[in-house]
């Protein structure tokens, strides 16, 4: 099930809200959220609900054992075992076909390629369990005696499938005691509708043209087509993923949970380092706190630590060498910026440094879009004018005209322009206009919901791009 579906918007979510608010006791409300979260996860592939249950309960038991033997060698052994099992679980389902395929290539052997499905969201909930176990071992949290807290932490449906990655310390108190206010609920609605608009009205519509322009196998047929197509994809993936995060945060607010921000206008950045401080911030925070700093951070072996983190960041996104190259590419840019380039970028006009980041980011998304090396390299040749393909084609002119208005709106919407404009209008409005300002959000919400509903009716399944990670 996805947030941007008629089923979720008009059946699942209203039913959950009614039951949730009829029940007054906090513990019973938590169990309602757990049951609905498991139902949400099981809707598409019910077999994987067993995996989610087992992984969550195993994490709960391991944490209790770590707590029991805290400060002893036994606790360390249990902790290492629990982390290895979680990484092994992720490795088996996500990476075993890739690893066997590469082993066969390197050795000339012919081991059968494992035919395993990829449980949706396994990369996210596995990392959250690892956070939970690590924080328990370090003493940052005390393992709760009730499995209910663990189940709700892992399975809470707003963040279950595509993040943001949250830590138990972020919501521990909210699980035990939270208040739902009219203001918070209203903010949640506004945030959810913003995300819905990003996904359905912008990302989905952009996504209809991207494969037509870029081709499914690196078959883009013109120089300008390659650049325009990858620009559309860059905007599509931003509005798709940030739209999901907005909806997740909005849903959390409606149930009294405050989830951390995951995006902060990354496309206004002036360097690769800044870009990754603004994009998928929860994933960056995970690798920083649980990999980079334990390896030594900036204090020792900086280059090694940096490339370990960015190798893992790329590999986390998918079992493909393209993703590994994509991760190492950004790691290399960040290293170059740290040692040589950052001082220059700071001195250059903002437009110039922003252009540098934009070009670097677009080249990065090529690795991300195409599933193998040959397709990516073919597109790079076209973008650099080395493929012998024409400047543009008549078909590109049609795509350009069809997408130009949406393209320009998406560019502006990827900056703080609209949020700043509304803030200025609200701040400077006279008291007489106060009531008009207060009605802006409800009117906006109704309009966006109506447009999104009309686009969703009769549409095919529209999963979020990060579901495959």
Give the end-to-end Cα distance, rounded to a whole number of Å: 16 Å
Query: Uncertain regions: pLDDT < 50 for 5+ in a row?
Result: none
**Portion of residues in helices?**
over 70%
Class inferred from helices and paired strands: mainly alpha
3D shape: globular
Mean pLDDT: 88
Rg, please?
Answer: 23 Å
Your description of this structure?
The chain has helices spanning 6-22, 26-42, 48-68, 73-107, 122-138, 147-155, 157-160, 168-176, 182-214, 223-254, 272-278, 281-295, 302-317, 321-347, 350-369, 373-383, 394-413, 417-428, 434-438, 440-456. It is globular and about 65 Å long. It is mainly alpha-helical. Helix 6 (147-155) packs across helix 8 (168-176). It has 20 helices and no strands. The mean pLDDT is 88. The chain starts with 5 loop residues before the first helix and ends in a 13-residue tail after the last helix.
Summarize the SSE layout with pairings.
Elements: H1 6-22, H2 26-42, H3 48-68, H4 73-107, H5 122-138, H6 147-155, H7 157-160, H8 168-176, H9 182-214, H10 223-254, H11 272-278, H12 281-295, H13 302-317, H14 321-347, H15 350-369, H16 373-383, H17 394-413, H18 417-428, H19 434-438, H20 440-456
Helix pairs in contact: 1-2, 2-6, 3-4, 3-5, 3-6, 4-5, 6-8, 9-10, 9-17, 9-20, 10-15, 10-16, 10-17, 12-13, 13-14, 14-15, 15-16
